[in-house]
């Protein structure tokens, strides 16, 4: 079931349903790569809150369940969040019909990572983080309404494969948690090397819309943006003069220095709000007729660090967060 029904019932709300919580309290910190779902559950599972299962093509998935009824799922391959459901069962994210889960390529949908390069460049498109297995380091949950919620932390570090593309030692720590109905995503990149490094990055978030002609992105008026619609390697610089960005053709725009709060209206009276820190830019992408069978059903609104690359000195880190909430914009 899609998000489309949320606002129709007038149930969209950004707040936490604290009264219905009864989560199991636990906290585990183990830095071991578990090889099977059973091992993952034994080492990191918190019954009722954080559970592991076999996803498509047998690929391990971590499932977060909040006592309010919200849930999220993330494949460890690519640390790709592929599902975020409201207590009503409405799905917020979108996974493309051509997505594959056998690790032969990145998962096309949900929230794939672009790291340590966003877009085309010296290495493969969008870097390597989306096509590698991330390791579970910590899971937690807490019964207290205003404290911790179901959460999983996964890590990615350098390997021979990454060093060939990007000659730097690093630790990327990604924390996914549910705060009631909200989805919280935090990425921390630590320089474990002895020289500074630069990177660009994004969370390439696919959100389901009722139909693309009804979708609107607000909060971007007045911003300078890089229009990549003609040639992504040679973007045109433009100024956004629309109150709301709408979709009438192929759209691939990087809005520079965007505000912390951006909303995507999905066409039903509901919107997905993205409140971020650390991510300085916002990318809006819809493939239009280049993906005839699915472009009508989603829009990507991506928190990015692209206009100015992040620079991290040895022993230091860079952190960015986004909180995603469903809000009612029907009035
Ligand atoms: O974020 C927008 C974008 O960079 C587009 O240029 C388009 O290529 C899209 O990502 C999808 O990239 P992918 O490599 O996942 O097909």
TrEMBL record:
InterPro entries in UniProt: Aldose_1/G6P_1-epimerase, G6P_1-epimerase, Gal_mutarotase_sf_dom, GH-type_carb-bd
Single GO molecular function: glucose-6-phosphate 1-epimerase activity
Residues the record marks as active site: 204, 302
UniProt enzyme class: isomerase
UniProt-listed Gene3D superfamilies: 2.70.98.10
Gene Ontology, cellular component aspect: cytoplasm
Keyword Transferase appears in the UniProt entry: no
Regions that span the bilayer: none
Keyword annotations: Isomerase
Catalysed reactions, semicolon-separated: alpha-D-glucose 6-phosphate = beta-D-glucose 6-phosphate
Enzyme Commission number(s): 5.1.3.15
Key word Isomerase present: yes
GO terms, biological process: carbohydrate metabolic process
Record-stated family: Belongs to the glucose-6-phosphate 1-epimerase family.
Protein name: glucose-6-phosphate 1-epimerase
Organism encoding this protein: Chlamydomonas reinhardtii (Chlamydomonas smithii)
């Amino acid at each position: 079931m899609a998000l489309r029904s949320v606002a129709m019932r007038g149930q969209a709300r950004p707040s936490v349903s604290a009264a219905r919580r009864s989560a199991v309290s636990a906290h585990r910190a183990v830095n071991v790569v578990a090889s099977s779902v059973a091992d993952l559950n034994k080492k990191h599972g918190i019954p009722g809150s954080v559970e592991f299962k076999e996803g498509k093509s047998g690929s391990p998935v971590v499932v977060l369940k909040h006592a309010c009824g919200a849930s999220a799922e993330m494949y460890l391959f690519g640390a790709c969040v592929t599902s975020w459901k409201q207590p009503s069962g409405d799905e917020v994210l979108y996974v493309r019909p051509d997505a594959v889960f056998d690790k032969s390529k990145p998962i096309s949908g949900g929230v794939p990572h672009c790291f340590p390069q966003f877009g085309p460049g010296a290495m493969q498109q969008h870097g390597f983080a989306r096509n590698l297995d991330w390791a579970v380091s910590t899971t937690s949950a807490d019964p207290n309404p205003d404290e911790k919620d179901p959460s999983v932390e996964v890590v990615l570090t350098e390997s021979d494969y990454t060093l060939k593309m990007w000659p730097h030692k690093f630790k990327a720590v990604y924390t996914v948690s549910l705060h009631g109905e909200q989805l919280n995503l935090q990425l921390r990149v630590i320089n474990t090397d002895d020289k500074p490094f630069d990177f660009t990055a994004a969370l390439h978030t696919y959100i389901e819309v009722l139909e693309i002609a009804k979708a609107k992105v607000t909060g971007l008026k007045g911003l300078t943006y890089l229009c990549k619609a003609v040639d992504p390697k040679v973007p045109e610089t433009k100024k956004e003069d629309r109150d709301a960005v709408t979709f009438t053709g192929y759209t691939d725009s990087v809005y520079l220095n965007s505000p912390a709060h951006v909303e995507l209206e999905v066409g039903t009276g509901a919107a997905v709000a993205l409140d971020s820190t650390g991510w300085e830019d916002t990318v809006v992408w819809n493939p239009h007729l280049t993906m005839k069978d699915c472009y009508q059903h989603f829009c990507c609104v991506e928190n990015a660090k692209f206009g100015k690359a992040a620079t991290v000195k040895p022993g230091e880190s860079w952190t960015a967060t986004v909180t995603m909430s469903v809000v009612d914009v029907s009035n």
